[in-house]
Amino acid sequence: MSYKTDIEIAREASKRPIQEIGAKLGISAEDLVPYGHDKAKVSAEFIAAQADKNNGKLILVTAINPTPAGEGKTTTTVGLGDGLNAIGKKAAICIREASLGPCFGMKGGAAGGGYAQVVPMEDMNLHFTGDFHAITSAHNLLSAMIDNHIYWGNSADIDTRRVVWRRVMDMNDRALRDIVTSLGGVPNGFPRQAGFDITVASEVMAILCLAKNLDDLQKRLGDIIIAYRRDRSPVYCRDIKADGAMTVLLKDAMQPNLVQTLENNPAFVHGGPFANIAHGCNSVVATTTALKIADYVVTEAGFGADLGAEKFMNIKCRHAGLAPDAVVIVATVRAMKMNGGVKKDDLGTENVQAVKDGCANLGRHIENVKGFGVPAVVAINHFVTDTDAEVDAIKEYVASLGSEAILCKHWANGSKGIEELATRVAEIAESGMSQFQTLYPNEIGLFKKIETVAKRIYRADEVLADKKIRDQLKQWEEAGYGHLPVCMAKTQYSFTTDPNVRGAPTGHSIPIREVRLSAGAGFVVAICGEIMTMPGLPRVPSSESIMLNDQGQIEGLF
After folding, report:
1. What topology does CATH give the domain 131-250?
2. Which of 116, 255, 306, 524 suits 157 as a labelling partner, its CA being 20 to 30 A distant?
3. Which band of pLDDT confidence, cut at 50, 70 and 90, is reported for residue 109?
4. Does the annotation count 470 as an active-site position?
5. Is 312 a catalytic residue?
6. pLDDT value at position 107?
7. Three-class secondary structure assignment of 496-535
8. CA gyration radius, the chain
9. Annotated catalytic residue: which of 75, 77, 247, 299?
10. Residue 164 — very low, low, confident or very high, per pLDDT cuts 50/70/90?
11. Is residue 436 annotated as a catalytic residue, yes or no?
């Protein structure tokens, strides 16, 4: 049996004018800044006017550790939003924007799938409304101003050996990870070692996603540490007067983007920090605005719950004063079988024992989410090869942990295939069961925070960090940054730092290779194992099959 591709389904969507979508949430046409007919930004004035309204219920969608078998977290987020609207609830969706890096690398797109998608799919996966370009430009303006400041006399007394601000681009390009700049003689400045990160790892991206408004944005940008002097004192972005111009470049990018699902329900798509190397959540502005104008807000956090959900709780909720009312953990029969040792080519064959063997990974995530005091329900994202016995095996396992799993067929049937989950999630959200708490208090030390995440979420025995890293953390504590949360940069594929270790391992160590202070964003990044802040393209990147067809339509996004 042949199925339509995601892009074919998206192309057949019956989209409504974006003003109609805004009207569903009480946003007038005057409060929308349209980008064509099917997408718009929501004005800062409208957002400010909602401040005194009560919040709706916040539902987080997360997942097990991703496998090549596919889990469908964004698809489930979109489907659940449609499902809540289908059962008569006023619901909005909040997801991240797609990075060009993974679109042309491994992923091929990130707007949901099947009949649970956000449209316009092609625009969202490409240039969209230009937010990522604005972030890249603002980041690299600061880079240019640093080198220019040094060239014209260096009045801030920057130690050129201790410039910590790297450049960024929104593409996977391993050749730019480590570079030397300013070669070519006196006119080009002072040569030094530098490098590029991917835009979604930029502190500017994190700042945009955590800032409450433009004033907060400029303050956070000014707080960025760009370098250190010879006496190790920090040099800030505001010291070279870059924060104002950066804010100007980000003025429009701060406004959330409104689009729609295939079923014409409202979706905010704004911001996009990676979850394995950044904090993995859409913008605070989009989420808090949606909570003021919808009764239910369904949002997602990147990759598995060990990364995205942990950072959503410990970083985003801490900074924004949010508290989720329910969590949905997405799993698939295929992924359970893969965790149970089945090869990808054999996933279509029934194997109930492998499903049972692989459920430990799901169980670990359920326990972790409950550790935050939030009730969790499992969404089994249905694939056509799943058998009743395999689905029942997951349901029985989840029930043994005191939770529940619900089979969802939104990929094939849209909202009709997920109404059972929508009904149950609404009941949980309204029950007041959530007793949300962060994993650690602000007051404990930075290394203790890293240890807390490593031991309680990853179930590691120890954190390995040499004296240089421990001393750096102590220096930041003495400088007044000890209250900040930590952002763990780690592989998404495993609870360990080895991407090949599946299941629910224990008895392992978490090595910290490097730590970075994101003073403007408000967290300390701990880079674990071999994770890269500038990914590379795979042997066969998705870009090889992305092209225009004879009708001028895009093919290859999925």
Report:
1. Domain 2, N(10)-formyltetrahydrofolate synthetase (3.30.1510)
2. 524
3. low
4. no
5. no
6. 67
7. CCCCCCCCCCCCCEEEEEEEEEECCCCEEEEEECCCCCCC
8. 23
9. 75
10. very high
11. no
